[in-house]
Write a structure and sequence with these properties.
The protein has 225 residues and is an alpha/beta fold. It folds into two domains: 120 residues, 3-Layer(aba) Sandwich (Rossmann fold), CATH 3.40.50; 97 residues, Orthogonal Bundle (Arc Repressor Mutant, subunit A). The chain is built from eight helices and 14 strands. Strands 2-1-3-6-7 form a five-stranded parallel sheet, sandwiched between helices. Strands 8-9-10-11 form a four-stranded antiparallel sheet, covered by helices on one side. Strand 1, helix 1 and strand 2 form a beta-alpha-beta unit.
Length: 225
């Protein structure tokens, strides 16, 4: 998943960033309201971890800006123990959940995963598509009830396709989602083709359908039939 950490405490933002990156997420950090607003307006994030108290603005106003500009993505508020009113206001204006400081990183990870499941897969821990079954709790994929061995990138790619079924997905959006913005500067996206080809090959070899189609000049589409 691609995450934006909005936290002005450099030590805490660094700790959150390191912890989530160890789990394989693509993370970016914003230390100010203005930086967060700019990043959220340009990039697409699965979830934004948002501290309310920022040096140049209020995190609640960032939520309002995102909603008024129809910027999608989950929002998890980080708040102090005494800010119950802010938590409730945040939920009313569009945040998905909140977590009180101090917190355990395991709970932070669980909350983020829960938000992304709700937003992309109606809250289901198990995603079923024809003969393909994904258990998001243990990151296991089954085709015809047989375990499919995937790399981390192949697993993330399959989830990305599942969340965007029947939509054309550009190579650029795949790179941004799975590798982060810096990789977009490269001249070639041949590595995307390799990952897509390997994922398709593994699914078909397990007697699954050939659902991943190349849309020439645009990208890929994961189709229902």
């Amino acid at each position: 998943m691609k995450l934006l950490i909005v936290e002005d405490d450099r030590s805490l933002s660094r700790s959150i960033n390191d912890s989530l990156k160890m789990e394989g997420h693509i993370c970016e950090v914003a230390l100010t309201f203005s930086d967060a607003l700019q990043k959220a307006g340009i990039n697409k994030y699965d979830c934004i971890i948002l501290d309310i108290g920022l040096p140049d603005g209020n995190g609640l106003d960032l939520i309002r800006e995102m909603k008024s500009n129809r910027i999608n993505g989950g929002i998890l508020i980080l708040s102090a123990k005494s800010s119950l009113d802010d938590k409730l206001t945040g939920l009313k204006i569009g945040a998905d959940d909140y977590l009180t400081k101090p917190f355990h990183f395991a709970e932070l990870s669980a909350r983020i995963n829960s938000i992304c499941r709700r937003n992309n897969f109606l809250g289901m821990n198990e995603i079923v598509f024809n003969e393909i079954r994904i258990n998001t709790d243990d990151n296991q994929v089954y085709v015809n009830d047989k375990l499919l061995v995937l790399t981390k990138k192949e697993y993330d790619l399959l989830l990305f396709f599942m969340a965007n079924r029947n939509r054309i997905i550009t190579k650029e959006s795949i790179v941004e989602h799975l590798w982060g913005d810096n990789v977009i500067l490269t001249d070639s996206f041949d590595f995307v083709y390799t990952h897509v080809k390997n994922l398709r090959k593994k699914i078909v070899k397990a007697e699954g359908g050939n659902y991943i189609k190349c849309i020439y000049g645009f990208g890929y589409k994961f189709i229902d039939s």
